[in-house]
Amino acid sequence: MGRRSRGALRAALAATLAMVAINRPLPLAAKDAPRTPPNIVILLADDWGFSDVGAFGGEMATPNLDALAATGVRFSNFHVAGSCSPTRAMLQTGVSNHRAGLGNMPETIPPAHLGKPGYETHLNNRVVTIAQLLRASGYRTYFTGKWHLGHTADTLPTTRGYDHALALSQSGADNFENKPNLLVYERADWTEDGGPARLPKRFYSSKLIIDRMIGYIDSDKQRRPFLASINFLANHIPVQAPDADLAAYRARYAGGWTALRAARRAGAIAKGVMPANVKMVTMGTTQNWEALSADEKAQRAGAMSAYAAMATAMDREVGRLIAHLKARGAYENTIFVFLSDNGAEATDPMEMSFVSHWNARLLYNQSTDTQGRPGSLTAIGAGFASAASAPLNGYKFTASEGGLRVPMILAWPGNPLIQRGAVAGGFAHVTDLAPTLLALAGAAPQRGRFEGRAVEPMIGRDLAPMLTGQATIAHPDDAPLGYELSGNAVLFKGRFKLVKNLPPYGDGNWRLYDIMADPGETTDLATAQPERFGAMQADYARFAKVNGVLPMPKGYSAPQQIFDNALRTLLIPRLLALLPYALGVVLLASALLFWQRGQKAALNRAPSS
Fold first, then answer.
1. Which stretches within 94-242 are classed as H helix?
2. Tens of pLDDT along 538-578?
């Protein structure tokens, strides 16, 4: 990069920070700013644990994500929601999931909540997406992969600001063919630009998602700045990967989850994303590896191998996109954001109810030697999910750090003011990304109004000062931030976290942790700091009231609700559809039996010769 380009980029970011300080957007044509505003690429992984990325301490091969981390900033105290679509709603809008319509998602919502304010289970019209705001500033906007924010014509990406979109409306699908997760859905709901998508007969999801995005980017011959929202299915259930990637990890996890969890802790400390003295708990759902049979160990280790293979396959596609942007001369003036939508997934159909276990056996090839391959339904379960989230406590669906704290990388390779390879340890939240990206792009934010109508204002804060090292925090110590999903609740305030997990993840009691000193949530401070404990409970109560948080039905748990909703919307209709055939079979069998008895009676009446 030449001296003039470096000076222009330095001036651009300095102007951005100055405009943020006086609460005004950066004009696209600001003096000394580069002629072309930066492109923006959002890389959203699915169900990755905190230490899954190599740059965060993991052993899985993620060289392209690690390279992005080396050119940018790793956020080690970054938080999202405990499951898919609530995070996606906040990422797209900068607004709390309860204000955006995703107080819960379709698969886990109890029927009594469905349709209540904030529980529409799709992105409502009271919010504006980052795509709408960037498009209004001259950007081209593209989306590929998992949407999970609505499935009707008026709730798909192309109605929410995206010029082109290949979108899956559901939580997951098969990665090799146009087939759903048969335990939850009747069909895979892929659309493109609002209509049914035409997918190849054979594909691999991560490659397909990047192929389409490259096609969208290249379709603009004017080379205008673009937003590329890339939403991988990796590593959501079913965990699947190409054979070569599976082979690379064969026998890698034979040592089990306890050994891996310890290695991940050491790796996170070595990479600087965890304090050197971090403590960690052994979760109640983590079985004794040594007590498993040889077959059980082989099955579990094989599932984790498939998980690592899927992550590496996704990383390779990230590298292919980066190589393409470099070839176009667009790489250095592109802002890259990588994050996961929640912690690692612990639910495993093979460990759930008898019906789920039976269904998995009936609908999929579940043999150990086919794990991760086409036709399989592979999942790592609670033991390896705890390792993927190490050294944190909890995983997906919980409000513990392992469910909410995820790896996040923000890089702008050509901008010399971004700290290269730095770690930002201050608290940050997924609602911060939209206002940050808008500020860096010089795009006007919405402040409660858009296109002449009132909308939900963004609650996120600009992280730009943390990128340059001018600030260590974006959220003041006295500013509370509330969160709730499926009855699991949190109040963040400075370095402290008030948290409550309902069964089966906890006992429903509030606890208080210092998540800067104790990110593993090993020491409850509720008794030692009663005033803070009480004040933060009052803060949470205000958040819940203002945002219309509904109490969960007695006995609720998210995994069980997934099964109950699938039973109601999928399995029972299937059984009812089969009822006429079953009735026909019964009638035919009865008629045949009646005929046989008649024949036997006739033979008995016939005179003997």
1. 97-100, 130-136, 205-219
2. 999 999 999 999 999 998 988 889 888 888 776 556 555 55
Query: Whole-angstrom Cα distance, residue 53 to residue 148?
Result: 24
Residue 397 CA to residue 408 CA, distance in Å, equals 19
Catalytic annotation, pick one of 79, 98, 122, 148: 148
Nearest 5°: the CA angle 427, 432, 436 is: 120
Distances in Å between the Cα of 416 and the Cα atoms of 368, 413, 466 are 49, 8, 14
Cα–Cα distance for residue pair 325/256, rounded to 1 Å:
39
CA distance 181 to 378: 11
Residue ranges of alpha helices (H) inside 519-571 are 530-546, 558-566
For residue range 429-468, list pLDDT tens digits in order.
Answer: 999 999 999 999 999 889 899 999 999 999 999 999 999 9
84 tagged catalytic: yes
Name residue 3's amino acid.
Answer: R
Tokens of 569: 């919307």
How do the residues of the chain divide into helix, strand and coil, expressed in percent and rounded to 5? 40, 15, 50
Positions of E strands within 147-297? 164-168, 190-192, 195-196, 226-231
Q: State the pTM of this model.
A: 0.90
Task: Round the CA-based radius of gyration of the chain to a whole number and report it.
Answer: 26
Q: Does the CA dihedral 534-536-539-543 come out positive or negative?
A: negative
List of residues 6+ apart from 327 with CB closer than 8 A: none
